[in-house]
Amino acid sequence: MIVQRVEKHFIKQNNLYYPMFCDFAHKAKNLYNHANFLVRNEFVKNNKWLRYNEMDKMLKTDLKFDDYKQMPTAQSAQQVLRLLDKNWKSFFIAINDWSKNKDKYLGRPKLPKYKAKDGKHILILTNQNVKLKDNILVFPKTFCGFIMHPQFIKHDNFVSFQQVRFIPNYKSFIVELVYNIEVPNKILPDNKRYLSVDIGLDNLATVVNNTGLKPIIINGKGLKSINKYYNKQMSHYRKVAKRMNGRDYTNRMNNLTMKRNCKINDYMHKASKYLIDYAIANNFNTIVIGNNKAWKQKSTMSKIINQSFVGIPHMRFIEMVQYKAQNVGINVILTEESYTSGTSFLDNEEPIKANYNKMRRIHRGLFVSNNGIKINADVNGAYQIMKKVFPNAYANGIQGVVLHPIRVSVA
User: Fold this and answer.
1) What gap in Å lies between CA 346 and CA 403, rounded to an integer?
2) Exposure of 380 by Cβ count < 10 A (0-12 exposed, 13-18 middle, 19+ buried)?
């Protein structure tokens, strides 16, 4: 099976080609806004949706505004219009669904907005413009000799190169190289050996199993520390910048943000790789992960805890586990985790509202069963998450269940 993957690079302000990409991204913004004006105008006045093909014909022959021709290549101009068409398509799907299910949304979906006047827009080049020659990505002549040395060619399962995306950031560009690799066509068969993962804060991932191995806890305190330091520093520099020159964002704040994002991304990669390596080493073909939609919306936790919890991208960790599991054929199942923290696995309770009693979760993350047996609260929750998907995972009893986990650090 062929799947897409992305390799990231950074182009910083001191790069020789940085001004050129700023110019291209600004022109892409002009084209996006011009096309968006046409689509909005047609929709508001005539209640008609101007699609990609019509936009492309109109702008290609527009003699008054040459935003289309200002783009570095015709392909890059077409990609901007395709993105706009995709945004409008998403809007119509969302507004139609909103009219039927208002409870799913935080508010009424709005029309695609214009980009800021002095802003930038993503620039996309396909493999029709950028060629992979002698393991080097060669760009069109309008890019003044710019080339890139990708790393994906070193992968044994590399198949083909697809496109390059230049994503504008604050005084930098994130370059995403999209390529195809080959992964196992089928997932591994169900061998009745399961891992179950409970996502948290201090315990980033609590991992249990149904084979009698000791549960493991992937330490999340490092992430929490990174995020706490970042929030403290940003608060300080925001006050200084506002007082000294009336600015809301500075170069120092940007560097701090980029460093924080890279650290968190690195930690998530290491944690997800550890989980997949653990599954492979112990012959687990299925991983169950608890995940509640919108679990960070309107959080009722304290301000300090909430700041750390909301700032850590747990969904990013789940996505990394999913694609790394796909690479080796492991099946990943996401399930909602309602009532898993307040029902007792040791008492064989079903994770339903009738059995929910969070008073049994006591000091320092311990959960006490009805018989007085103490178990790590996150371990109990992870076992209950497994029970939601595989109720018979412990059909032969829970005598072999290990209650006390091992904490591991991946940094």
Assistant:
1) 10
2) buried
Per-residue pLDDT of the chain (411 residues; tens, 9 = 90+): 899 999 999 999 999 999 999 999 999 999 999 999 999 999 999 999 999 999 999 999 887 889 999 999 999 999 999 999 999 999 999 999 999 888 888 889 999 999 999 999 999 999 999 999 999 999 999 999 999 999 999 999 999 999 999 999 988 999 999 999 998 888 899 999 999 999 988 899 999 999 889 999 999 998 989 998 999 999 999 999 888 888 888 889 999 999 999 999 999 999 999 999 999 999 999 999 998 876 555 555 555 666 666 678 889 999 999 999 999 999 999 999 888 988 999 888 999 999 998 888 887 788 998 888 889 999 999 999 999 999 888 866 676 677 789 999 987
Phi-psi region of 348 (alpha: psi -120 to 50; beta: other; left: phi over 0): left
Structure tokens at 96: 């139609």
Domains of the chain: 2-182 (no CATH), 194-222+261-408 (3.30.420.140)
Q: What pTM does this model have? A: 0.86
Taking a C-beta distance cutoff of 8 angstroms, is the pair 317, 273 a contact?
Answer: no
- What are the C-alpha distances in Å from 48 to residues 80, 191, 235? 20, 54, 47
**DSSP H or E segment with residue 216:** strand 216-219
Burial class (CB in 10 A: 0-12, 13-18, 19+), 104: exposed
